[in-house]
Amino acid sequence: MMGNNRRRPWIGALIFSGLVLMGTISIMVFVPTEQVLLEAGVMIAGLLAGAVLVRFGVPRRWIGSVVLVLFIAAWFALGTAGYAWFGGFLAGTSVGVAWGRFVANRTVETEAPWAVDEQGFRNAAEARLAADAALRSLDGKKHGRLTVRRGSARFEVAGDPGLGMLCHRNADARNEGSWAVLARSAGAGDASVEVPMGEVKALMPPRLVHDMAAVESALAEFFRNPEALSLGPEWETGSDAGATRLTMD
Q: Which of 27, 124, 165, 201 has the most beta carbons within 10 angstroms of its beta carbon?
């Protein structure tokens, strides 16, 4: 499955900010002074200033130089509490970076015509590459789920390539009763097959459990015509089809 960093490009900056704050607070705790309240207030002020400055920027280039001078002047003016100002401001700049990336990522995901595991893509070719990679890296023990979106159409895979996978699609996911499940008409045994998806596991009829080749073919078909209302005989529809979906709910 695609890593969280691809779906959440802001998480790294947020982690760095947290580490800086923890380091600054550790100095306050383990090297206490009589001005701890001042240091805490200065750290919070630096955090807010850094976050707002990086997130929204400055309207004129020369203002950036003024801000830099003021930052250094405040650092020295605060004396021994200057470390708290520096730590808070450094953490704040990372928060500002994370804030901007989060907003940009949400905007792309909202506007992008395609999405793979909630990551937006502006064309089918990029989305197809991401979906193929995510499908090949499915791991039923960890998560074992792939979701592809095109408008209101959905394509879902749950399971593990080595153990078998379930495959569903829908031209309009707002209609819960119109899901279709990929099924084999012949060659399946009678014994139920356990399909894993992280902590969720389910026993499924073997005709609904597929190997990589069958799922790759179904994925390619979805990319050719995601909003198709009329599907081939390999797709079963009806209320039972939706009931075979594995979800984390």
A: 165
- 206, 148: one domain: yes
- pTM of the full predicted structure? 0.56
The angle that helices 61-77 and 82-111 make with each other, rounded to 10 degrees, is: 140
d(CA 127, CA 115): 7
Same domain, 237 and 153: yes
pLDDT digits over 16-26, tens only?
888 988 988 99
Within 10 angstroms of residue 74's Cβ, the number of other Cβ atoms is 17
- Strand 153-160 and strand 164-170: the pairing is antiparallel
pLDDT in tens, 128-147: 999 999 999 888 877 778 99
Query: Exposed e or buried b for every residue in 157-181, given b needs 16+ CB within 10 A?
Result: bbbbbebbbbbbbbbebeeeebbbb
Residue 129 sits at φ, ψ, to 5 deg, of -60, -45
Domain boundary among 62, 84, 111: 111
Q: Can you give the residue range of the structural domain that contains 134?
A: 114-243
